[in-house]
Amino acid sequence: MRKRMFGNSGLETSVIGYGGWPMGRGMYGDFDDDEAIRAARASYEEGVTLFDTAAVYGWGYGENLMGKALKGIRENVVLVTKGAREWVRDNPDRRSATVSDSDPKRLLTSIDESLKRLQTDYIDLFLIHWPDHNRAFSEPMDALEKAKAAGKIRYTGVSNFSVEMMAESRDSSPIVTNQIGYHIFDRRPEAEVMPFVKENGMGIMAYGSLSHGLLTGTWDADKTFSEDDWRRGGANFGINSWGPENLAANVAVVEKLKVIAADHGKTIPQLAIAWVLANETVSVALAGSVTPGEATDNIGGDWEMSPELKNEIDDLVISEGSGVGMPGMEIAT
Q1: Which residue among 45, 129, 253, 331 is least crowded, i.e. fewest CB within 10 A of its CB?
Q2: Helix residue ranges per DSSP H, the chain
Q3: How confident is the model at residue 88 (pLDDT cuts 50, 70, 90)?
Q4: Which of 151, 102, 84, 86 is nearest to 124 (CA)?
Q5: How far apart are CA 114 and CA 119, in angstroms?
Q6: Maximum pairwise Cα distance, the chain
Q7: Is residue 240 within 8 Å of 234, Cβ to Cβ?
Q8: Taking phi first (over 0 means left), then psi (-120 to 50 degrees means alpha), and beta for anything else, what does residue 315 get?
Q9: b/e map 10-47, b = 16+ CB within 10 Å
Q10: Which residues, other chains included, contact 36 with Cβ-Cβ below 8 Å and sequence gap of 6+?
Q11: β partners of residue 179
């Protein structure tokens, strides 16, 4: 698999990363733990070197499962996790009510908790999951620098931050990435976030490469979600790609994308991932999977898409898609 650097940081990654959000039980519907572990291992065996998770995925469950999946290969991978997103820990019925809280003392404690769940003594790349608007961004960055000095983390980054938030964060810590949603149905980061990242020697971690499932090619216009699935209702970080008013149109677009993919000997997930990687500011495209078959299919997204093909896809989505996130539209932070 091809490799890319996070800008000029010296940190290298496979161009496709294993996205661990679906491992967070209670967030993406039901799955089998053992199958999910096999999916992560299959990704590693196919050349994936970056594995991404977060404390809040399944309220700790995702990190626990990721730790099991990486047992025996931990030293060979770039392990990414995220924090400063808190939840109610003593009441299971209220755990879904999460809030951004980057209090430095709590953040340092949470890093220790993540290390324990992940069964490791260091994290390669630690990200502030969502901005905390109640304090200066220097506060959590200073805390991460302390964790770095203690050998608990190697590199720092952010997730879902605006240009202004990244600039302020960089005053206190040399962040190497901003992890942000980017896929065929959402190009909003192209306007401001990606140019800033490129100009400052950083790299983008693109999450939602498969539009959180829409680009798997398995949905129909009557797609429904279980109660324990965050996608229920259609909201998608400020856009509404699969809301009731948009789903049918976008499923129809996906059907046409399937034909384009087949014409190039690819599946729709492989087309979607290659589209993300066609942007040179992207260091790694994250793709989640909870079965080995899904994982293996995702690996096929490591191919170079021509500018002509990318333009063809963009023209189709812009002309026929509904609820699409376009450059210049506001990004929720």
Answers
A1: 45
A2: 33-45, 61-69, 104-118, 138-149, 163-170, 193-199, 247-263, 268-277, 292-299, 307-320
A3: confident
A4: 151
A5: 8
A6: 54
A7: yes
A8: alpha
A9: ebebbbbbbbbbbbbbbbbbebeeeebbbbbbbbbebe
A10: 22, 23, 65, 69, 290, 291
A11: 159, 205
pLDDT, tens digit, for every residue of 114-141?
Answer: 999 999 999 999 999 999 999 999 999 9
**Assessment of whether the complete model's pTM goes beyond 0.70:** yes
Domain boundaries, the chain: 3-215+269-304
Topology (CATH level 3) of domain 3-215+269-304: TIM Barrel (3.20.20)
The residue with tokens 């938030």 is 165
Structure tokens at 119: 């069964």
Catalytic residues: 57
pLDDT class for 234, splitting at 50, 70, 90?
confident
What phi, psi does 281 have (nearest 5°)?
A: -75, -20
User: Of the candidates 107, 180, 109, which has an alpha carbon nearest to the alpha carbon of residue 137?
Assistant: 107
Q: In sequence order, what DSSP letters do the residues of 252-298 get, joined into one string?
A: HHHHHHHHHHHHTT--HHHHHHHHHHTSTTEEEEEEE-SSHHHHHHH
